[in-house]
């Protein structure tokens, strides 16, 4: 798939050049500006907050295995080890995974390089929690939909998924232009005018579409919240619960 090939090249370049900034693009942190402990602390705060949110929702997650899809430099993978016995981080960029392995002080994360359009490298129904945030937005709609189906597939029946993706652009110049300007022009601006090591795509998925996709895969979206203060995109996080096998079979019948 041409789009995935391009994403692979871009994120390999970003991982080679400035992996921590590429994960969290704080303007003041470019060119190696992130302190590693500070970078990892943002992941711990995010995962601890997510655990509290799931508890408030009454979503019970077993503490066996967690998947961090699009793990990048391991910011969230490392944090997940405080809540799960085993963590698997998957990413398209080998340099990002190299940074993640270097930053992992726990020795309890297994990192997997995957450039395929699916997740056949992972077993069906093998994760208690599937987590992905600030990842799917960098893919066009078709691969995003396919990966969402795959993420539901690898979750255990009764397990939970936390999916973060913007649901719409906001009425700012950047937001509007990102929606109407051709991708090739955006790539040129990011590389030439903004000086990015490689381009970063931005796409959205309406909440209704995420709900419909989950339902079609035998899961249900149980909660959504606005996440992250971004002036150009409304970032959302969705909690999706994969139906237990008995309920899924009954619904199919």
Automatic annotation (TrEMBL):
Entry keyword set: Methyltransferase, Transferase
Ranges of residues in domain Methyltransferase type: 67-163
GO molecular-function terms, A-Z: S-adenosylmethionine-dependent methyltransferase activity
GO biological process: methylation
SUPFAM superfamilies (alphabetical): S-adenosyl-L-methionine-dependent methyltransferases
InterPro entries named among the record's database cross-references: Methyltransf_11, SAM-dependent_MTases_sf
Name of the protein in its database record: 2-polyprenyl-3-methyl-5-hydroxy-6-metoxy-1, 4-benzoquinol methylase
Protein species of origin: Spinactinospora alkalitolerans
